[in-house]
Amino acid sequence: MQNLSDNALSILLQQYLETEKNLTEKQKNILKAAVAVFSEKGFAGASTSEIAQKAGVAEGTIFRHYKTKKALLFSIVSPTIVGLGAPIVLKDFESILEKQYVDFADFLRTIIKDRFEFIKNNQAILKIIANEISFHLELQQMVKEILTTRIMTKIQLAIEYFQEQGEIVLLPYETIARLIFSTIAGYAVTRFLISPNQDWNDEQEIETMIEFLVKGLKT
Amino acid sequence: MQNLSDNALSILLQQYLETEKNLTEKQKNILKAAVAVFSEKGFAGASTSEIAQKAGVAEGTIFRHYKTKKALLFSIVSPTIVGLGAPIVLKDFESILEKQYVDFADFLRTIIKDRFEFIKNNQAILKIIANEISFHLELQQMVKEILTTRIMTKIQLAIEYFQEQGEIVLLPYETIARLIFSTIAGYAVTRFLISPNQDWNDEQEIETMIEFLVKGLKT
Amino acid sequence: MQNLSDNALSILLQQYLETEKNLTEKQKNILKAAVAVFSEKGFAGASTSEIAQKAGVAEGTIFRHYKTKKALLFSIVSPTIVGLGAPIVLKDFESILEKQYVDFADFLRTIIKDRFEFIKNNQAILKIIANEISFHLELQQMVKEILTTRIMTKIQLAIEYFQEQGEIVLLPYETIARLIFSTIAGYAVTRFLISPNQDWNDEQEIETMIEFLVKGLKT
Amino acid sequence: MQNLSDNALSILLQQYLETEKNLTEKQKNILKAAVAVFSEKGFAGASTSEIAQKAGVAEGTIFRHYKTKKALLFSIVSPTIVGLGAPIVLKDFESILEKQYVDFADFLRTIIKDRFEFIKNNQAILKIIANEISFHLELQQMVKEILTTRIMTKIQLAIEYFQEQGEIVLLPYETIARLIFSTIAGYAVTRFLISPNQDWNDEQEIETMIEFLVKGLKT
DNA sequence: GATGAATGAGTCTTCATTCAT
DNA sequence: CATGAATGAAGACTCATTCAT
């Protein structure tokens, strides 16, 4: 078992857990408005006064809850960053892998569906993260920490397992992970950013990706 | 043969060709400084005064050459957007495909190496484009036009050719193109943004990607 | 009876009535400073920073109350433009004319004294209006509306009345009005702009003008 | 005979005489453009770059001929200010008055027609002078000097002559002059600024003004 | 003589943040 | 706890003027 308070993530996680409760109606409005404006105009292009207006609160009210504009950004972005790694924390891979008859395709289907759902439900905030990550060192560190401690370690176990089973090619696990993530991310970008209005059959596209990855990574 | 002046791109292309010459030393400094600052802080987060200072010119000088800050952005970004599609215009696919003994792996090797080189040489500007494309409709339109008229039409021909040859799977060409681009982009992002300081063996990574794609798209 | 809210002027009038109250000390200072600076340097020659300094507020404070420099100009100028026509609205001519024994000289005395008082109390703002009216179409329209709907229609009644009485010459009423206004304006300009420091006996000058006008317009 | 070089006006007069000749085509274009822009936007609201553009010359060229923007203003405005008093200098009143049978109406007809013609031919520049005179002390001084030394002294003679003849009322000559000028100016403003597009019968309007003034100033 | 690139002070305006109410 | 007036630093952009060519 992972100790959840053994690193800086515990702070984020706390925030994450507080998110749903403890929030007044005004605070929720502020967060909702901020997500909308940040995602539409970018952090630097957004003005706190526009957020206040959209949230229906006074300009000063924002600063009563969030010390600075940047703190507001992080309040929005942190839970989603934690969420990036959360499901993999919760549904422990190890237990998954212990189940019999789990092949690589099933494994891919599980993560792709799960992560696709996550992206679908967090489009706006993920867009904010993607847009701002270049400009905020702290963001980079948060994401990096989640990625390495929460995701990559688990992924590594799974990949090595399937390599041992002879199901997938013996490339470095980072490379394999990158190829998998690129495929998912490429779909997400096309699906939600480039052509959101096109008719999409997500089920089928996911199966196509699984087949592509299974074949591409076969030994 | 494509007529290069048959659509709105000709304007961009003209700009592109003028770029290298006709520029005073000061103008070059402004562009260089602007690329640096835009890429480091984002368009909205960059200040014209910082650009001026970095370029060693007076702030007014910037506005003598570029009517607005936004015009400066587009002067930087336009040639690279044109460049996105340029090589595929020049080295005509059709002629490539007429050569005998061209298989899908060779085809992939050609575009991946070419585009990888392009990305390597235009990292900063491509980063700016990626960061700003959400916020500037004109940018979206420019990129879309290049992508559809210059790239996708050519790619389609190639993909259909290899499908006829029975080399690759009979998926819609957009799907195949997306899987290829995702793989390249995923590498570029990891290579240049996430871990630029790591030791990379580009040759080998490219071969890995080619093998992955060839296997993944096999019939 | 005139309905005061029967046209676009009602908005101006509202502004006018709000003017005196509802203003913080700082706003009053801003207006006072702006009147001084606009009147001394002209609108285009005035800088908001000078106004702010003279008003003892931060420059940003001006823009919290007035969206733009031009809006500040109009806030100053609108009530006075309304005031141009106001007294004639209030003291209804018709009722004046119904009184017996009102001759043309009395009529002139009434308007000249009233308007002279108005000019005396609004010198700075009237100077601003005179200086800026060429450059702002909206100003021209506002003044034109007040002049035609509030003043000329009333004046016309009076002039026609005195013409019927055989007291004044049968020229078009616009001509007669112009000759009257020119005489008043000519005095005001000399009195307040050209030689403000000279010793003036306003009572006597007004009687001179009345005699001049009565004789000049006699049948 | 007046000695033309006995005061500061000689400088202006020299400028005035140089005006017609000694001017390159470019200089004439600059002056023409400057008159247009100053009159349309006011001195402070006009930009030298717009003037240069309208004149078809480089920005620097203006400053080769006129040290500063203000010097350009004065180059435009000075000859017309001199012209304000010029005709009265040339056609000497004294000689006019010596002719027999000259009555006050004829006198008025002469100056009104002359000055009306002058105003008609110098509308744009006179508008500039009127708009700028509040903001430039030197302008005020120039106009004042012309008015007092060139005009008022002559007018005084004429007025006193007609007073001696018993033709006009025994008011101070300044008052009489003011009433005359107000009447002319009031017409000019209405005629050229307020309703320039209306159909005007100048001959008739002038006769109306003469009759008005003759009657108004009768003993 | 004419040009136009370069300047840097100055313009109006916006913005994140504070604080008295 | 929320407000919104006030701030002043900083923003993009303009302008009159200079000067090397």
TrEMBL record, chains A, B, C, D:
Organism (species): Desulfonispora thiosulfatigenes DSM 11270
Protein name per its UniProtKB record: Transcriptional regulator, TetR family
Transmembrane regions listed in the UniProt entry: 71-90
Origin: domain of life: Bacteria
Alphabetical list of Gene3D superfamilies matching this protein: Homeodomain-like, Tetracycline Repressor, domain 2
One MF term in the entry's GO annotations: DNA binding
Sequence ranges assigned to domain HTH tetR-type in this UniProt record: 24-84
DNA-binding residues: 47-66
Stored InterPro entries: Homeodomain-like_sf, HTH-type_Tx_Regulator, HTH_TetR, Tet_transcr_reg_TetR-rel_C_sf
Keywords carried by this UniProt record: DNA-binding, Membrane, Transmembrane, Transmembrane helix
